[in-house]
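Retry 2 of 3 after timeout on previous attempt. Resubmitting C-alpha cells to design endpoint.
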C-alpha cells in the first residue's frame, strides 16, 4: 500500500517545492532570524525536498541575508528566491541565490482582473510585457527560472495561457499556477489546468506547478487534484503554515502520495517521510506556531488510539484503524533516556541519534544546558532533548535580549509582582519591576520596564513536552507589539521562566523586524 511497493516512473515523480521560509514566514507573528532559517533549511534538505524557497530578498535586508546564508550553506535542494516582475526585485533575488549549488529565480505577477486593476493598476498588455521582460532578465542571470501567475484561478484562462506560453518562450523552466486566495475547488481547478494545458501546448516542455492556499480548507485537496491532471511540482509548507489560513501542508501531501500511491497512478516523491516529525517540531518551535493536536500526520493525536474500541482493534490488528504507521513519519518512540549522571559522550551519542551535527562548541553549550535541566528533572527523554536542543540553538544564535534572572512574589490576596534582569546584545544589563493580574502579566510588565517594550498578550499557552509531574514546560505567546503581531516560544523546567523567555523572544522578533522594515508587497 505504500510508494515503496509501487513501480517508480520518472514521469510520475512529484517535485516538492517547500516555501516554509517564504510564504510560511509571511504568516502573522513569524519572524525567523538568519540562523533559524538555516537550521530549518538543513532539515528540509534532510527531508529530501527538491526546492527550498528561502525568501523574498527585496522585502528586507535581513531577508536577503537569510536567503544568501541558505544558498551558501545548504546543499542538495535547489534554492529559490522570490521576485516581483521588475528589475530591482529580480537582481536582488539573484544576489540572494547566486552562490547556491543550484539557484532558481522565482518571478511572479498577478493575472486576475481584480488584481491587475486594483493592486497593480496595469492593463493586460502592461502585465504581459512586464512578465516577458522579467522572465527574460531572470533567464539571463540563471538557468532555472520559475514564473507564477498570481491569482491564476480567478484569472481569464485564455490570458493565463498567453502569459505562460510567452514565459516558456522566454525560457521559464517551471510554470506555477497558484490558487492565491484559496478560492477554487478540486474539480474546478482540474478543469482550469486541463484547459490551460490544451490552450498552451508548450506547458508539456516544462514542469507545471501548483501552489494552493487553504482559506476554504482545500489546499491539499486542490494540490492533489492538480497533480492528478499533470502538475509535477507541489508548493507547500511544513505544518501547512503560510499567508492567512496557510499553504498546502507538506507532510499531508507527502503522506498521501506514500499511502495512496497505487490509487494515484504511481505518483511518488523523493521525500524522506521519516524526517517529517522532526521537521514539524522544529518549524513549530522556531516559528512559535503550535500544532493543533488533531492535525493530520503531525498532531500529537494523529497516531493515538484513545477510545477503547479503537485500542482493542489496533491491538488485535493495527490495520483495523491505522492507515499509516508512526515509524513512517519518524515518530518511532525512541527509548533514549539520559540521566543526571550521563556524561558528554552519552550526550553526543544521543544528539547524533536524534540527527544533530555536534561540533565541540555546540556540545559544550548543549552539555551545560543538559546538566542544568537534568539536575532539576532527573531524566530526559528523546523528546525532552529535542525540545532543549532547539531552544538552546536559539539562545546561542539570537544575539538579542536574554533573561538573566527573575524573581516573583505575590501570595494569595497579594498583587503579583515580578522583577527581572535582562542582558542586552552588548552584555549590558537592564533591571525592571512590574505588577499584573497574574504572574505572566507581572513578568511581561517587568520586562517592558527593563527594556522599554510594550507588548499586549493576545494568546498564551503552556504545555508539557513529555508527560509526568516533572515535565519540561513549553510556553508560547502571541503578542501585539507596536501594532504588529509577534510569536515567541521557549522551554524550561519552570513555566514562569519559559513564559518570560517566550515573551522576550517576541520582543526580540519585533526589534529585528523594525531594523529591516519590510517593503510592502501586497498580495504575495
Ligand atoms: O499565493 C501566491 O500566489 C504566491 C505567489 C508568489 C506564488 O505566493
Ligand atoms: Zn502563496
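Retry 2 succeeded. Sequence:
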Amino acid at each position: 500500500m505504500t510508494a515503496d511497493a509501487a513501480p517508480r516512473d520518472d514521469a510520475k515523480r512529484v517535485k516538492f517545492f517547500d516555501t516554509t521560509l517564504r510564504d510560511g514566514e509571511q504568516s502573522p507573528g513569524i519572524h525567523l532570524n538568519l540562523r533559524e532559517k538555516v537550521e530549518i533549511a538543513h532539515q528540509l534538505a534532510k527531508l529530501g525536498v527538491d526546492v527550498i524557497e528561502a525568501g523574498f530578498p527585496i522585502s528586507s535586508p535581513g531577508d536577503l541575508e537569510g536567503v544568501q546564508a541558505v544558498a551558501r550553506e545548504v546543499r542538495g535542494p535547489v534554492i529559490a528566491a522570490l521576485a516581483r516582475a521588475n528589475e530591482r526585485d529580480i537582481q536582488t533575488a539573484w544576489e540572494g541565490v547566486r552562490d547556491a549549488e543550484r539557484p532558481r529565480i522565482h518571478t511572479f505577477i498577478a493575472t486576475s482582473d481584480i488584481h491587475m486593476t486594483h493592486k497593480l493598476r496595469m492593463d493586460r498588455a502592461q502585465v504581459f510585457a512586464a512578465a516577458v521582460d522579467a522572465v527574460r532578465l531572470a533567464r539571463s542571470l540563471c538557468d532555472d527560472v520559475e514564473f507564477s501567475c498570481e491569482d491564476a484561478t480567478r484569472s481569464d484562462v485564455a490570458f493565463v495561457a498567453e502569459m505562460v506560453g510567452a514565459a516558456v518562450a522566454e525560457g521559464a523552466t517551471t510554470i506555477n499556477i497558484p490558487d492565491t486566495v484559496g478560492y477554487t475547488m478540486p474539480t474546478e481547478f482540474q478543469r482550469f489546468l486541463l484547459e490551460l494545458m490544451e490552450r498552451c501546448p508548450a506547458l508539456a516542455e516544462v514542469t507545471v506547478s501548483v501552489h494552493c492556499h487553504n482559506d476554504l480548507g482545500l489546499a491539499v485537496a486542490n494540490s492533489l487534484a492538480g497533480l492528478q491532471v499533470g502538475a509535477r511540482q507541489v508548493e507547500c509548507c511544513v505544518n501547512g503554515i503560510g499567508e492567512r489560513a496557510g499553504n498546502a501542508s507538506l507532510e499531508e501531501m507527502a503522506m498521501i502520495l506514500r499511502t495512496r500511491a497505487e490509487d494515484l497512478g504511481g505518483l511518488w516523491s523523493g521525500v524522506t517521510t521519516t524526517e517529517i516529525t522532526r521537521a514539524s517540531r522544529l518549524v513549530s518551535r522556531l516559528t512559535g506556531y503550535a500544532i493543533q493536536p488533531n492535525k493530520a500526520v503531525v498532531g500529537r493525536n494523529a497516531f493515538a488510539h484513545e477510545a477503547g474500541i479503537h485500542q482493542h482493534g489496533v491491538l488485535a490488528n493495527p490495520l483495523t484503524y491505522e492507515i499509516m504507521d508512526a515509524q513512517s513519519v519518524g515518530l518511532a518512540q525512541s527509548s533514549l533516556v539520559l540521566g543526571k549522571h550521563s556524561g558528554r559522550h552519552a550526550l553526543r551519542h544521543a544528539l547524533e541519534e536524534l540527527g544533530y551535527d555536534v561540533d565541540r562548541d555546540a556540545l559544550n553549550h548543549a552539555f551545560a544546558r543538559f546538566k542544568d535541566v537534568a539536575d532539576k528533572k532527573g531524566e530526559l527523554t528523546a523528546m525532552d532533548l529535542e525540545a532543549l536542543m532547539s531552544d538552546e540553538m536559539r539562545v546561542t544564535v539570537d544575539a538579542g535580549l536574554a533573561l538573566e534572572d527573575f524573581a516573583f512574589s505575590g501570595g494569595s490576596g497579594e498583587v503579583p509582582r515580578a522583577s527581572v534582569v535582562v542582558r542586552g546584545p552588548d552584555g549590558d544589563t537592564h533591571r525592571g519591576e512590574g505588577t499584573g493580574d497574574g504572574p505572566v502579566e507581572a513578568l511581561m510588565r517587568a520586562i517592558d520596564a527593563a527594556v522599554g517594550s510594550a507588548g499586549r498578550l493576545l494568546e498564551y499557552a503552556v504545555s508539557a513536552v513529555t508527560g509526568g509531574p516533572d515535565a519540561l514546560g513549553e510556553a508560547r505567546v502571541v503578542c501585539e507589539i507596536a501594532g504588529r503581531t509577534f510569536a515567541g516560544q521557549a522551554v524550561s523546567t519552570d513555566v514562569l521562566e519559559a513564559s518570560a523567555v517566550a515573551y522576550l523572544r517576541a520582543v526580540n522578533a519585533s526589534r529585528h523586524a523594525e531594523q529591516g522594515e519590510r517593503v510592502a508587497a501586497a498580495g504575495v
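Attempt log closed. Residues 23, 178, 180, 211, 213, 243 surround zinc ion (ligand 2) (CB under 6 Å).
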